[in-house]
From TrEMBL:
Subcellular location: Cell membrane
Protein topology in the membrane: Multi-pass membrane protein
Name assigned to this protein: Antiseptic resistance protein
InterPro entries reported in the protein's UniProt record: MFS, MFS_dom, MFS_trans_sf
Annotated Major facilitator superfamily (MFS) profile domain residues: 1-448
Recorded superkingdom: Bacteria
Transmembrane domains' residue ranges: 51-69, 76-95, 139-161, 167-186, 198-216, 228-247, 268-289, 295-315, 327-346, 352-379, 425-444
Gene that produces this protein: qacA6
PROSITE patterns found in the cross-reference section: MFS
Predominant subcellular localization, coarse grouping: membrane
Any Pfam family hit: MFS_1
Length: 465
């Protein structure tokens, strides 16, 4: 595929797809009060699952969805994902009971799992080495803007419309995006290596879902409860079983020996660390602005907009420094950690302008580190495994996001009220981010020395699909 194949309409369409998929992770959080008082009368547990079903299915299916897209056609995977996303949104919008709402969220999450790796994989294939860093900066920006759009959209819907309107709006939006993909996006070379691995897919997906379930449910049930320990144990056994199966299989879903690469380990940890801090902030921010500062839901959605500024502007410069990942990633993650520590000092008397400055620091750190980390995952794998690389990277993001919310929630649960718990919660998260940054920087290698092929992976000409 020639390097000039990536046209601006294609780039904008693919980034719009991933933005919409990511926005539904955050949008539901600002609708929780309205859902709780709705005619569905959901219980506390059902509300929790309405929020979590999307994330669990999304993150659990990312790796197999990315690998399957590589093998059977990325454009087809993207269009299928948009169809599933729309079907799930329609199910949620028309739900007459909480179970249908939760099922719709899960179905949309499955669609998002196909959309996200397919978009990045197509960009990698079309951009070529010369434009890859810029393409990854745009894609990463779309991920960040998706979180912001979700907060803003959820806040506006929560204040002025019914919660059903959020899901109903996703149906025509997905249809428009599918039409844009059909028109603007060419088919790319697909991988000819191996065949579907249903056993490996089942083992890995079940293992990731079990681990994510434990992370998300841990704060409510207690980290040392029998239920959570059992789920974590089951997840570890399933992932171990997948590893054994993949090492013995002639055509595994992916070769786990790719993690011998220190660069791949460092970049996946870095992505998880960044989203660990960012989503802990999202979780705390909406409660701080509404419960402590007294903002309305729509104003709360707007008040987090400063996080967009750094994500929108800094990646343009970060792409120029892609050959120096250590200082770029180290500085970016450190800014996230330091910004969280600064935000931990906020209280009811803190001027919003000062709080917004701390959001800008976190935003700048995110915009600086995430493109380099995303590109690091891509270049750690051969080009025909771009979808798998996206799946690994996005799984790390979602796992980090879930863990960030869980850690912040657990820290808050140990305090008498939110106002007194916000500071300790953000200090814990910020400290963890700074400590993890040291590990990430230690494991990174300068660009130009990536491992272009996974162990045992032959290089062959790939058919177009």
């Amino acid at each position: 595929m020639p390097t000039h194949a990536l046209k601006r309409p294609t780039l904008l369409t693919l980034c719009a797809c991933v933005l919409v998929a990511q926005s539904m992770v955050a949008a539901i959080n600002l609708l929780i009060p309205q859902l709780g008082s709705s005619a569905l009368h959901p219980s506390h547990t059902e509300i929790l699952w309405t929020v979590d079903a999307y994330v669990i299915v999304f993150a659990g299916l990312l790796i197999p969805a990315g690998a399957l897209g590589d093998r059977h056609g990325r454009k087809g995977a993207l269009l299928t994902g948009l169809a599933l996303f729309a079907a799930g949104a329609a199910t949620s919008a028309l739900a007459t009971e909480p179970a249908l709402l939760i099922a719709g969220r899960g179905l949309s999450g499955a669609g998002a799992a196909l959309i996200t790796p397919a978009t990045m994989s197509i960009l990698v294939q079309l951009a070529g080495p010369e434009r890859r860093a810029q393409a990854m900066a745009s894609w990463t920006l779309a991920i960040g803007l998706g979180g912001m759009a979700g907060n803003l959209g959820g806040g506006l819907v929560g204040q002025y419309l019914s919660w059903r309107a959020l899901f109903a709006a996703m149906v025509p939006l997905a249809a428009v995006l599918a039409a844009a993909v059909a028109v603007t996006t060419p088919r790319t070379a697909r991988s000819a290596h191996g065949s579907p691995d249903p056993v490996g897919t089942l083992l890995l997906t079940a293992g990731l879902v079990a681990v994510l379930f434990g992370i998300i449910e841990g704060p409510d049930h207690g980290w040392t409860s029998a239920r959570i320990l059992t789920v974590f144990g089951l997840g570890a056994l399933l992932v171990a079983a997948f590893t054994v199966h993949a090492l013995r299989s002639r055509a595994p879903l992916f070769d786990p020996r790719v993690f011998r690469s220190g660069g791949l380990r460092a970049t996946t940890l870095g992505l998880a660390t960044g989203f660990f801090g960012l989503f802990a902030l999202f979780f705390v921010n909406s409660q701080y602005l509404q419960e402590v500062k007294g903002f309305e839901p729509a104003v709360t959605g707007v008040a987090i907009v400063p996080l967009i500024v750094g994500m929108a502007l800094v990646p343009r410069f970060a792409a120029r420094w892609s050959a120096r990942p250590r200082p770029v990633v180290g500085t970016g993650l450190a800014l996230i950690g330091l910004g969280l520590l600064a935000a931990s000092t906020a209280d009811a008397h803190t001027p919003y302008a000062l709080y917004a400055c701390w959001l800008l620091v976190i935003s700048a750190g995110t915009g600086l580190a995430m493109p380099a980390l995303t590109l690091g995952v891509v270049v750690s794998l051969p080009p025909h495994q771009a979808g798998l690389g996206s799946g690994l990277g996005t799984s790390a993001r979602e796992a980090g996001a879930a863990l960030g919310v869980a850690v912040a929630g657990t820290a808050l649960a140990g305090q008498p009220d939110f106002a007194s718990g916000m500071g300790p919660a953000l200090r814990i998260v910020g400290t963890v981010v700074l400590l993890a940054t040291l590990l990430v920087v230690t494991g990174l290698r300068p660009a130009g020395r990536p491992s272009r092929t996974a162990p045992g992976t032959p290089v062959a000409k790939e058919p177009v699909a």
